[in-house]
TrEMBL record:
Belongs to the LysR transcriptional regulatory family. Residues 5-65 form the HTH lysR-type domain. The keyword Oxidoreductase does not apply. It comes from Marinomonas maritima. It comes from the Bacteria. This is LysR substrate-binding domain-containing protein.
Length: 300
């Protein structure tokens, strides 16, 4: 049966060797000299060989046996390996290392997350982050496949996702987006029936209208564009109009207008989505708590 070596005893052995004596090693270890001697004897018993030559009563010098000389680099290697693992796990638990995998809908990814991540990683410079942005359906799929630790998305029909936990954080209103020179752009608010006579381009967020009185619009639309960059380009070119949540509206665009949809008043809730039966890694748990704290949301 192989001996079970204690890291503390290995440290005592190395310190006695490097400091040339048991008394100096005892001071470094904040132990008594008899305690260090007992530790070394127990280590020798486990190894089955003496590590130090019998000491001369007139000197305190500790001299290694040939076996001790051979074991010294091995002991240092074991201590170094132990300390590397201990340091890695400590850093991981303190969110200073590890890997955070995150997915988010583009609106939050571009408008809110950059600032949050910048502040978060400033305290964890060694943290690796893999970040994906996509529509809510794709984000939910990544969560289900455990490609990410958690996602930030709108959870369509929450009752259909018993395996997921949803923590709402942000919300925004649905509005109509059209070119600045479009007739609808002069309105301060719109009813859904105002869109029936215009070319409507649906997108990934159009599902928000499904359970509202504006749902007939989805059947009237001939065009669907999933990519936000392509959608904005088509809108700026005057190809049609669309509905978008406020966070998804490209505020940097000088060619488009956002008009709130007042009839019906539809609000999108966005939040943290994670699997109920899966524990988060320390970095993921820390970032989730960081988001909640910065957003003033209590996690119930």
């Amino acid at each position: 049966m192989l001996p079970e070596l204690k890291i503390a005893q290995l440290r005592h052995f190395v310190w006695v060797t490097e400091l040339k004596g048991f008394h100096a090693a005892a001071e470094k270890a904040h132990r008594t000299q008899p305690a260090i001697s007992l530790s070394i004897r127990d280590l020798e018993s486990k190894l089955g060989e003496a590590l130090f030559e019998k000491r001369n009563a007139k000197t305190a010098k500790a001299e290694l046996t040939p076996f001790g000389l051979y074991f010294l680099p091995k002991a240092k290697e074991l201590i170094a390996h132990h300390d590397r693992i201990a340091e890695d796990m400590t850093l991981l638990s303190e969110n200073k290392a590890g890997h955070l995998r995150l997915a988010s809908v583009p609106s939050i990814a571009s408008r809110i997350l950059p600032g949050l991540l910048q502040e978060f990683v400033s305290a964890a410079p060694d943290l690796h982050i893999s970040f994906y942005d996509d529509n809510s359906i794709a984000v939910l799929k990544m969560i289900e496949n455990q490609k990410v630790d958690f996602g930030i998305a709108h959870l369509f029909h929450e009752e259909e996702h018993p395996d997921k936990r949803f923590i709402p954080i942000w919300q925004d209103q649905i509005g109509v987006v059209c070119p600045n020179d479009h007739p609808l752009a002069r309105q301060t608010s719109l009813h859904w029936t105002s869109l029936k006579s215009h070319r409507l381009i649906t997108n990934g967020t159009s599902r928000l209208l499904e359970d509202s009185e504006a749902s007939p619009l989805l059947e009237l639309s001939q065009f669907y564009v999933s990519n936000m960059i392509s959608l904005i380009a088509m809108l700026e070119a005057g190809f049609g109009v669309t509905t978008l949540p406020w966070y998804a509206f490209p505020q940097e665009s000088t060619k488009l207008s956002f008009i709130p949809l007042a009839g019906p008043h539809v609000v999108r809730r966005i939040g943290i989505v994670l699997l109920k039966n899966k524990s988060l890694t320390p970095p993921a748990h820390a970032f989730l708590n960081f988001i909640l704290e910065k957003s003033g949301v209590l996690d119930c």
